[in-house]
User: What shape does this take?
Amino acid sequence: MSEVRIRVFAELRELESLSSLWDSLLQRCGDERSIYLTHEWITTWWRHFGKGGQLNILLAEKGNQIVGIVPLMKTTYKLGLFRLRALETIGSVNCNLVWLVSPESREEVMTAFLSYLNEELAKSRLILRLILVPEDSRFLDMLEKRAEQISKRLAIEVKFKTLAPYIALPSTWDELYRSLRRNRRWILRKNLKLLEKEHSVEFQDYTSDNLFNRLNEFIDLHQRRWQSVNVRGIFFDSAMKEFYKDIAVKFQERNWLHFSFLDIDGVMASGEFGFIYNGKLYSTTAGRDIKYSKYSIGHLHYMFMIKGAIKKGLQELDFLKGAEPYKFYWTKLSRKYMNVFVINRGISSDLRLKLVYTFLRLWEARQYNLKESYVLRLLRLKEEKEIKKMGLRLSR
Assistant: This one.
């Protein structure tokens, strides 16, 4: 039996050349597949946000066959005179399953991956930083179990980051509707009836003809919502706008794009940008017109979305990262997302890990001005209070 070896690709053209092989390998991953591991997502994200980083695509080879891919990058975080160099996953904004490996090769690929880390972290003074890894992922389970067996030089820390609520979709809308609390069903009926009485209401999905026009409306709607509370919003960055447009085109070609909007009197009042992949509807980004907040416009939009997802035979609506109270309006189910740090073990490794956490928290805080940080803090406190009122508890 051939030993699995790691080869590294560091050029965009090399990443692009993997498209067919990447798709084939991802299909063999079974239920350990995610839209965020597709070749389209990884390459598009890198083209828009990879500046300043270095590609580090790990190919796990067994003989002449590639049996695993771990799409990583090297990044340098700067804070004043201090620097932190990290090896981390590309475009890991959500549901970070980390690798593409067929089930029969997982043990061998993990062994090769840990051997690679053992050498790379020592010689390059890097840390491995993996964010938003589902707690129940096979990668995380194997990483924790195998690390001690393979190397005594690696120190691993796994920390809870956030919850990711999801709905296990039944076969009919009526079944899900009956699962909601009585007062929530009453509020949905009342708000929809009142909205339709006072306005012209139309729920629509995008078409190829109106995609860009409606996407521009959506971006504007999203920005107005955040600017109303003195926060810039994600589309303040022009690169993010272009990324959304590019990924929309690529996912549209693969029938993975889900982009819907609720028009009131002919104008978008609510928009949802997301994806459909492997039997799941991913709800990624929302825009709401606060002028219609009295109708709970967001919940009405989700009602139409859920009906459509059930009609399409999808098994799940994934709300993804964040324990916002509106998500638990629809479900009590959630996954834990973890942050994973691996460093080269040495003297005071616990202290070095604490310094890494502190550095990254300070770096993240610097991405917002003082006013934005204050507003976001107030919003988080408000959400935590609402979560407690709902009888739910955030793990820490």
Notes: The chain has a mean pLDDT of 92.
